[in-house]
């Protein structure tokens, strides 16, 4: 291709890996939302921070928009390139750069997969505790960009808690070395935390120093069958009071039906309205007995209708598949995804109102609920029926999300708990952030990205 801007890029970054084949534009231009038609200008695969910096400077000179790109497992369209942008794919920058045993940190490049980080930490006898189903495909750069959460937030918090340092090439082309692995640093604005969750609108993360911790004690994994959400919350309170939880995740019978249809095995004979995968410390006999006692106490109350207790790692994995397999199992319906948060205490009331709202609003669409109880984070997947056209489906989902956003506003919740705003949730940002807050965010974006080259059109306009 003879685009003069690309000729200038080749000159500015000699030896840069550039892809312009239609199949590559298609592949790198879309993410897991699969709702936009990819149309990037080209794909750049830099191999170093210097190359990233040179790309950003070129983008400023040429006024070309950049889309930072990791595993593209995002569910909000944050990595979509549909308007002639240059995709900056970070997959070649995927190395572990350093491990420090005293600091207990791992310094990595942004394109490294989350699972590779887990393995590198485990090789040192330590744990990087952020974890979720896309671990094999998602990259740390994207985790930072969305402040990714996942299945262990109840114990360890979000990605934000585990970032000891970041190197960021800002939209203006400056390389900032933020916090440098310090534990304490009371020296003004912590710019590291601005970059975390910015969805690539302030700059490109070129290096991250991750905190590590002790590996968790051996865990007990249970699958619980429950009659109602109110009871589920009671079981949660009981388990949390008695045990050290590592995870407490829920799904409904619908979610279960989809994962079973997708090949998972069902430990129960009967169908139940709600299910929980609970995992907690079970290092010794006392902790194992406490787990059993909590389970039996809830059984006696009639709260738990049925239960399966994993007897091996393999069985634990089978139980986890029932929860973690949902996204993949429903993917063929190209779901419209809501990823909402309310305070944990507000969950039962919110859920009841949201269920009533969605039941009425989507008489023809199947809605699959699941999520992270301990974090107040609910995933609502609206499945697109085969006989409903894309446009009609998205229009209806958009209208209903307006109503959901109003409900969230009333409950003081958030339109995105962990997936980010991207393109999908951009129209509803004001349900979570005030006008004054958005104005401040816009001002910050203007300072770090004065020419608006960093992921324009995402998060807010
Ligand atoms: C999960 O918790 C992920 O499994 C994906 O956040 C949620 O597919 C979804 O809506
Ligand atoms: Zn989730």
UniProtKB/TrEMBL annotation:
<dbReference type="InterPro" id="IPR004113">
    <property type="entry name" value="FAD-bd_oxidored_4_C"/>
</dbReference>
<keyword id="KW-0274">FAD</keyword>
<protein>
    <submittedName>
        <fullName>FAD-binding oxidoreductase</fullName>
    </submittedName>
</protein>
<keyword id="KW-0285">Flavoprotein</keyword>
<dbReference type="Pfam" id="PF02913">
    <property type="entry name" value="FAD-oxidase_C"/>
</dbReference>
<comment type="similarity">
    <text>Belongs to the FAD-binding oxidoreductase/transferase type 4 family.</text>
</comment>
<dbReference type="InterPro" id="IPR016166">
    <property type="entry name" value="FAD-bd_PCMH"/>
</dbReference>
<dbReference type="InterPro" id="IPR006094">
    <property type="entry name" value="Oxid_FAD_bind_N"/>
</dbReference>
<dbReference type="InterPro" id="IPR016169">
    <property type="entry name" value="FAD-bd_PCMH_sub2"/>
</dbReference>
<feature type="domain" description="FAD-binding PCMH-type">
    <location>
        <begin position="36"/>
        <end position="215"/>
    </location>
</feature>
<dbReference type="InterPro" id="IPR036318">
    <property type="entry name" value="FAD-bd_PCMH-like_sf"/>
</dbReference>
<keyword id="KW-0560">Oxidoreductase</keyword>
<dbReference type="InterPro" id="IPR016167">
    <property type="entry name" value="FAD-bd_PCMH_sub1"/>
</dbReference>
<dbReference type="Pfam" id="PF01565">
    <property type="entry name" value="FAD_binding_4"/>
</dbReference>
<dbReference type="InterPro" id="IPR051264">
    <property type="entry name" value="FAD-oxidored/transferase_4"/>
</dbReference>
<dbReference type="InterPro" id="IPR016171">
    <property type="entry name" value="Vanillyl_alc_oxidase_C-sub2"/>
</dbReference>
<dbReference type="InterPro" id="IPR016164">
    <property type="entry name" value="FAD-linked_Oxase-like_C"/>
</dbReference>
């Amino acid at each position: 291709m003879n685009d003069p801007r690309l000729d200038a890029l080749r000159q500015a970054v000699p030896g840069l890996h550039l892809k312009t084949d239609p199949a590559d534009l298609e592949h790198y231009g879309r993410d897991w939302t699969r709702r936009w038609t990819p149309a990037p200008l080209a794909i750049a695969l830099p191999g170093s921070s210097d190359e990233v910096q040179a790309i950003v400077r070129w983008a400023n000179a040429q006024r070309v928009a950049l889309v930072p790109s990791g595993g593209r497992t995002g569910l909000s369209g944050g990595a979509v390139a549909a308007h002639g942008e240059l995709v900056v794919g970070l997959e070649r920058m995927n190395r572990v750069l350093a491990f420090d045993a005293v600091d207990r940190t791992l310094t990595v490049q942004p394109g490294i997969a989350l699972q590779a980080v887990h393995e590198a930490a485990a090789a040192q006898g330590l744990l990087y505790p952020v974890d979720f189903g896309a671990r094999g495909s998602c990259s740390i750069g994207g985790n930072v960009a969305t402040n990714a959460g996942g299945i262990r937030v109840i114990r360890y918090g979000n990605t934000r808690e585990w970032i000891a340092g970041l190197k960021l090439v800002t939209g203006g082309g400056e390389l900032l070395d933020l916090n440098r692995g310090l534990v304490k640093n009371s020296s003004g604005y912590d710019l590291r935390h601005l970059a975390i969750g910015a969805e690539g609108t302030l700059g490109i993360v070129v290096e991250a120093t991750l905190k590590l911790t002790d590996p968790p004690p051996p865990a007990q994994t249970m699958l619980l069958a429950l009659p109602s959400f109110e009871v589920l919350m009671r079981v949660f309170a009981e388990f949390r009071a008695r045990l050290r939880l590592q995870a407490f995740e829920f799904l409904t019978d619908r979610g279960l039906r989809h994962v079973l249809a997708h090949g998972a095995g069902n430990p129960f004979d009967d169908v139940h309205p709600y299910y929980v995968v609970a995992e907690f410390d079970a290092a010794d006999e006392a902790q194992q007995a406490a787990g059993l006692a909590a389970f039996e106490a809830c059984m006696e109350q009639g709260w738990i209708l049925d239960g399966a207790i994993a007897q091996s790692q393999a069985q634990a994995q089978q139980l986890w598949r029932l929860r973690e397999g949902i996204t993949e199992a429903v993917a063929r319906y190209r779901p419209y995804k809501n990823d909402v948060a309310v305070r944990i205490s507000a969950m039962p009331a919110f859920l009841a109102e949201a269920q009533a709202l969605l039941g009425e609003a989507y008489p023809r669409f199947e809605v699959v609920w699941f999520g992270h109880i301990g974090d107040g984070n609910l995933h609502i997947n609206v499945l697109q029926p085969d006989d409903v056209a894309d446009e009609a489906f998205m229009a209806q989902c958009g209208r209903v999300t307006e109503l959901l956003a109003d409900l969230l506003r009333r409950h003081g919740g958030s339109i995105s708990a962990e997936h980010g705003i991207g393109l999908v949730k951009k129209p509803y940002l004001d349900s979570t952030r005030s006008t004054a807050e958005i104005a401040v965010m816009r001002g910050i974006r203007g300072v770090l990205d004065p020419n608006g080259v960093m992921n324009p059109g995402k998060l807010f306009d």
